[in-house]
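Lab manual, section 2.4: Encoding a predicted structure.

Procedure: take the sequence of the chain (625 residues), apply the prediction step described in section 2.3, and record the output as structure tokens. A sample record is shown.
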Amino acid sequence: GMLRYMLVLLLLLHGTDSFYVPGVAPINFHHNDPVEIKAVKLTSSRTQLPYEYYSLPFCQPTKITYKAENLGEVLRGDRIVNTPFQVSMNMEKKCEVLCNLPNKPVTLTVEQSKLIAERIREDYYVHLIADNLPVATRLEFYSNREEEEKKKEKDVQFEHGYRLGFMDGNKFYLHNHLSFILYYHREDVEENQEPTYRVVHLKADEKSMCTLPEATGSAPQEIDPSKENQLLFTYSVHWEESDIKWASRWDTYLTMSDVQIHWFSIINSVVVVFFLSGILSMIIIRTLRKDIANYNKEDDIEDTMEESGWKLVHGDVFRPPQYPMILSSLLGSGIQLFCMILIVIFVAMLGMLSPSSRGALMTTACFLFMFMGVFGGFFAGRLYRTLKGHRWKKGAFCTATLYPGVVFGICFVLNCFIWGKHSSGAVPFPTMVALLCMWFGISLPLVYLGYYFGFRKQPYDNPVRTNQIPRQIPEQRWYMNKFVGILMAGILPFGAMFIELFFIFSAIWENQFYYLFGFLFLVFIILVVSCSQISIVMVYFQLCAEDYRWWWRTFLVSGGSAFYVLIYAIFYFVNKLDIVEFIPSLLYFGYTALMVLSFWLLTGTIGFYAAYMFVRKIYAAVKID
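Recorded output:
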């Protein structure tokens, strides 16, 4: 059964290479039909601040129209807008001048020249799309042309967008000529019909040259930030036929990361987790069996006189902890996150949230988090009732506002900084109001609803009665310290997922596409299993040491891998990103804090529920007089 399950999963994983996106129909072009080229944004992994296309003095069409965007696109900083490039299906163009004036250079003011030079220094990329496909530029690895010829087409890598310009010493050069290379796939039609074409791939070459007889202009052109500059924007269009089918046209963009690494990391994690879980299960089950058998033998009176271990604390193990309301609220948010992440990854694994539907992932995640409030509220309410809480309205309010409030607060502060920089990454005011309305209009009532039913339901049944007087807790050894526990418990889950973490980080911070959701789903399952095991082991050791205050401790310790994620994020910042300025660093650490917090809630919740089930199981198995 297990093998068959693994095979099905592997097939699913393998199937995520090609994308056929439900709901997105291919556009068929005829010869000479216009193919619109739109601009998305300018991005840089050095400043982490996206800007909209016309924040720089590019050529503008007579009428600028922005596309209506979904929530995810707005949050990502996309501002999709039309451009003056005239491209027609299967029509070649050589060295067209872009701006309306026939072959007259555009004059940039000193301010504009300074701004362009600044953006080139900050390493900005321009992102364009045609027929919803991003324009990519080819990365060249070899300086030697012969080696380049030998190198097979398959290994060519692309990067998203094209570079705005480059620096040579202290001089700034702007890529003012773009050569578009578009690949089309000819669709099969009946004989007497006009052939139809579909755009399947798009390349831009900013290194090509263009000579116009009557114009004085070179490409790339030097920009002197201290004076006015004369600029000529030009472009050319070249069409090539391609065998790529429309359904798999995204593959070229998505094979940018190495799939082999994922396989190695997954197999490695699976082996480690199964090996450890085997050992843990053996040890725990054998010791427990022995423990339970010993405790249930009632023959030797002397033995029971000198009892030790976890049976001793049976009268205190279900004593409610301090701050039960906060604990149940955090666990409610953890359940909400858990449901959201599970559904998002599963749906994405089936290929429904592919990168071709822009912003779909973030939109789905936001809405799902709001709607999963029912489950969060239900679990929080039931736990709060079990912990002898009685102020359910206050508890529900706490669940609905504690974690989302922290997230909203941090995002609002960061947003103010982004606003100050006039970046398109700032969430506009209407969107913010819409998000607040979703929070208070959808999430809050749903949490209250769930909490009400959870609180009315029978509390979890505890197998043993709690004594009136709390028992003395003996002096604990050094390794039972909370911090040592966090360090020990965090290693295994973090080790199982840190390679995937690297890809997620580069997707967020370096403008890559992340699409290996099949792998992510597997990693998520491994994470759940390893968190549960670690948490059970920790709780067992703690109860054997006769320390019965396990509620909060289990929650904190199971979230130990979040501590490692934080350390990894700092390492990534220092080694992989060349961010030097204050605001980008602030953004990086602000968003990292949110990720770490969410991850801590998620893993803490998984560990807590595993430990709670375990504790109820073992005390139910012992006869207690």
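Check your result against the sample. Residues 322-461 form one domain.
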